[in-house]
């Protein structure tokens, strides 16, 4: 099979308080998204948000519907966001072909679309990172390059969190129903990806880590502000962050991550912040 998926049910904060390390990883870590020659999905019950990966090698891969969707076409009632984190590749949506270099994004609106993923070279395959959310309307497909993104420069060397935030699939750049995605890249010498830590009580968020150097790792912090937990992650792994959980992270070297969100609104700044002095 070239398409596989698993289901993750929602976990409450009271349950998570009793989890050991392995239970936390089983519930919130996505550690096998990028599998050569496969499309792999996690169907999450947080906002019915889906996170996945497609890695075409010597053959193209199709975006196939899943039993869980009860739909003949994956995009019948869903929008999809794609960011390439590997070699150069193309995505064919119906009869339109979009070329995506590393870091470039494609928004695919809801509709009866035929979607196919291709790599330019099998020995340097594209790694298409996928997010999907239910859609109440159909908006046009749109490619977004790094030059098209809205870029925020935040942090400083003094607080070890100097970073550029590329808002790729976000209100004001692309018209979407609820999906938002972007890429944050830390500067050399900076390791903290999000400070102050915050919650999105009106939506979920998923963090996908990339360009983590070999032998290095990122400690992703989650949990309630007064009851935090951590999960160590490697390159091309993600953490599902429930609405009740904070999210931030610190690496043993600089790295990048992709954030994806869906929920009640499209306000990027809709968050509840918690300064470091308040965390426990």
From TrEMBL:
Top-level EC class: isomerase
UniProt remark on cofactor binding: Binds 1 zinc ion per subunit.
EC number: 5.3.1.17
GO terms of biological process kind: D-galacturonate catabolic process; D-glucuronate catabolic process; pectin catabolic process
Record: residues binding Zn(2+): 198, 200, 205, 247
Superkingdom of this protein's organism: Bacteria
Keyword Zinc: yes
Named cofactor requirement(s): Zn(2+)
GO molecular function, one term: 4-deoxy-L-threo-5-hexosulose-uronate ketol-isomerase activity
Coiled coil: none
Pathway stated in the Swiss-Prot or TrEMBL entry: Glycan metabolism; pectin degradation; 2-dehydro-3-deoxy-D-gluconate from pectin: step 4/5
Reactions catalysed according to its record: 5-dehydro-4-deoxy-D-glucuronate = 3-deoxy-D-glycero-2,5-hexodiulosonate
Keywords: Isomerase, Metal-binding, Zinc
Known function: Catalyzes the isomerization of 5-dehydro-4-deoxy-D-glucuronate to 3-deoxy-D-glycero-2,5-hexodiulosonate.
Family: Belongs to the KduI family.
NCBIfam families with a match to the protein in the record: PRK00924.1
Name the UniProt record assigns to this protein: 4-deoxy-L-threo-5-hexosulose-uronate ketol-isomerase
Gene it is expressed from: kduI
